[in-house]
Amino acid sequence: MTTYIERFPAEARVIRSTFFTAFIALGIGALFGLLQVLHRTDVHRLVDSADYYHILTIHGVLLALTFTIFFLAGVFTWGLTTSLDRGVVDVRFTWAWYGLMVGGTALAAIPMFGGLIDGIDMSAGVLFTFYAPLQAHPLFYLGLALFIIGTWLAGADWIWTYLAWRRENPDERIPLPTFMVLTTTLFWYLSSLGVAIAVVVFLLPWSLGLLEQVNPLLTRTLFWYFGHPVVYFWLMPTYMLWYVLLPKVAGGKLFSDPLARVVFVLFLLLSTPTGIHHQYLDPGIAEGFKFIAMTNTMFLLLPSLLTAFTVVASVEHGARQRGGTGYLGWLGALPWRDPVFTGMALAGLMFAAAGFSGMVNAGMNINYLVHNTFWIVGHFHLTVGTAVALTFMAVTYWLLPQITGKPIWSRSVGLAQVVTWFVGMTLMSNAMHRGGLSGVPRRTAEPQYENFDFTPAFGTMAELDAGVVIGGSLLFLSAVLFLGNVFVSLTGGKDLTSIPENAYAEALSGAEDGPLILDNLKLWLVIAVLLVVLTYALPIGAIIDRGGLLGPGGSPYPLVVESGRAISIGLGEVVA
Amino acid sequence: MRISPGALLVLIAVSIPFIVQSRTVAAFIGLDMSVWQMIALGTVTISAIILWAVWPEKWLPGRPKLEEG
Amino acid sequence: MNIHAYEKLWLAASLVLIVLFIGSVTYGAVGAGIAMVDDAEGVIDPDALDEDDRFADPRVEEVGENEYEVYVVAGQFFFDPGTFEPIEVPEHSQVTFYVTSPDVIHSFSIPGTNANTMVIPGEVASMTVEVGDPQEYGIVCNEFCGGGHHDMEGEFHVVPEDEFTLEADE
Amino acid sequence: MTEELHREIGHDEYNPVGTLVLIALYFLVLLLLWLFVYFIEFLGRDLTVVGVVI
Q: How many residue contacts between A and B have a Cβ separation below 8 Å?
């Protein structure tokens, strides 16, 4: 019996830091989420409605980027080192990428929070998507760029460690968790390039006044080039945990290692050439390009549907080994008292529901029905907000003891916490989906209009508001229970004997059953790049051809007065 | 107990989305269910689940015994 | 690589599902005739809308029998026309909206209907709909566009034939 | 974990029949929901965006 901290004390320290950073982001993000549901529904408006958008920006960035990416960086470091059974090559480099990610986050946070504080003349009320000509303070873009470079260095760390292992083990198959880390890293390099170009080449110089204007459709397209794939950057570590940890806590084995590899290869190939499906209703992009993005997106369902089968079959294997019988009776034999298992299982169930709203979002013309409505918010609170976040929280109950040597304070509170999240999300997301179908917009402080009312298919808007408020409050309660449980656990003493061995699920059908070509990552990367070029070269070329690299313009908003922007404001006045 | 307390808790939690969506289904087939009717239906459903779960198994012979999880 | 028979079955079912989805969308485009907002319109200088003959004077215009074109400027935080006075068209007509923005990205969306488009500075969104019986609709911006985003709303009225007059005819 | 195991089931003797049942139900739900949302909610609505009839 060896725990992770005994085997890899130096790496455990870095993973602890990534987790704590993630948890701080989770706490602030959850609190701001509660403020939003109370504000939108007009139950209580703590801030001015114009400031709602700063709250929303912080909620989106801290939860969708900071919480998820810091946590997954820790999970990947754990999965890589555990499965290779070797430490990182140089832990100082590991600290370097962590430091860069923290530094980037801190820089971006200054204007994000500055927008909420009177007397600070900096703001970044541009939401998670920062569509130009909405303009944030340069620190926001700079911080974002540094953060992304930090994630690239993290990927380099993982690849570096893998190559070192490869020299020591020239003939072995890549262990499954490492395979998943590597495919995800390659995919992330490919897809985050879009946002890096948007930020470094266009938005940062523009916010500094070095560029007079940008092409809004181009920067928006570059954002979505990254903006859809980023959801797979959250999902792939989640899938990894479902593949390698969930079967283990269920008492079974992974059904098929080769199929898990096929799924991750499919993600590497298909995740990026789909972003245009966020732009189905954009003028300036030809219908043909939208259709291509639609078919790519639909085929991207395949790895997720395959995952559903493999993961459930692995869990069923556990149930049957535990004595479960019958067509459905085996479900009763699963370890439902364990928050690690129950949290991940409920997250998976919610993801099945999210699969459906995602299919609707992917359907090109049906996008007229749901585009930018509350439906979308309901959808991604099921995906990143539950499939990913609930899995990460559940797995914390397993990983935290591994990296700290301290047992979880209360597994019962943990169980209550994951169930509360599930129930809260059921109520909130149902109301959001239904509200969206009646046309309620997303991202608005006051979805109450003077000249018309929304008419839900049945029931009333007040009931939907109640669903959002009750659901949102339960989610906040759940987050508090989670963070409280983590905090109390950390104040406790070390007890290595009560912590299970650091290990992951074996496979019923192992890597040796899969063809060698699956491990040929260079080949898959080349095909992935080719697919991206095929899908994106023409639309991006067309957009640049239409509006020019620096675009037909639009006005930067807000027109904040500070030193870096003086030039562009001066120019603006000349034009005016 | 027919199922473990943990399984019962999760079963109740998982029944909630079905109860909430029962109203959607009812509306689709033309039945307008109010929130209170839905809550009543939910209370009945969850009570039935609890009753089923705590009912001693030996009173229903012939059912395969589920293992405690 | 041995794939279990059930998993092969599921793989086939998944592919059927995907083909069905793509088929539905294609049917919507070809059979039901739903067109996507696209690149049919050329680019426009957002800083010079007052020199454009469509958007210098945003309005409703009759272009054929029962065919109307509506030119809308969506700006922070209004639709012109729409916010200051309702957009009015007669019942049972074909209406094409042309919407553009002088400042940031907005949307032009009629809640409860399928009329919904992004509005991007430099681009003109065009969207043709067929309206039926008289009805009053709202218009919202559903893309965040700045601190007053939630105040950006308008009205779209489909009015009886005999109550309809064009501004130009008044 | 090991003490909870009732039996060891290998790859060749394991048929995930419960998974097949669950996933078949899921398939049906997806199919029905898609037909409902696409053909009734979406295509049944007013103000559908059509191509310009020339």
A: 70
Let me know: does C53 contact C161? Beta carbons within 8 Å: no
Please name the CATH architecture into which domain A4-562 falls.
Up-down Bundle (1.20)
| Contact between A251 and D4 using a beta-carbon 8 Å cutoff | yes
Q: What predicted TM-score, i.e. pTM, was given to this entire model?
A: 0.94
pLDDT digits (tens, 9 = 90+) for C113-123: 999 999 999 99
Strand partners, A5: none
Contact state of A309 with D23 under an 8 Å Cβ cutoff: yes
Q: Which domain holds residue D11?
A: 1-54
Evaluate if residue C159 carries a pLDDT over 70.
yes
Instruction: Note whether residue B64 is domain-resident.
Output: no
Residues of A in contact with B23 (CB under 8 A): 458-459
pLDDT greater than 60 at residue B68: no
* C-alpha–C-alpha distance, residues A89 and A12, integer Å: 14
User: Which chains are within 8 Å of C by 3+ CB pairs?
Assistant: A, D
Inform me whether the C-beta atom of residue C17 falls under 8 Å from chain D C-beta atoms: yes
Integer Cα distance of A246 and A346 in angstroms: 12
Number of domains making up chain B: 1
Q: B69 or A536, which is more confident?
A: A536
DSSP, collapsed to helix, strand or coil, labels residue A103 as helix
Backbone angles phi, psi at A506, to 5 degrees: -80, 170
Topology (CATH) of C46-169: Immunoglobulin-like (2.60.40)
Q: State chain B's maximal CA–CA distance in angstroms.
A: 42
C–A touching, 3+ CB–CB pairs within 8 Å: yes
Quick check: B67 contacting A, CB < 8 Å?
A: yes
Q: What is the pLDDT of residue C17?
A: 96
Report the residue from A333, A335, A458 with minimal CB separation from B66: A333
> D11: nearest CA in chain C?
C4
Quickly state the pLDDT bin for C169 (edges 50, 70, 90): low
What is the per-residue pLDDT across A113-156, written as a single tens digit (0 to 9) for each?
Answer: 999 998 888 999 999 999 999 999 999 999 999 999 999 999 99
Burial label, A563 (beta-carbon count in 10 A; 0-12, 13-18, 19+): exposed
Q: How far apart are CA A397 and CA A412, in angstroms?
A: 11
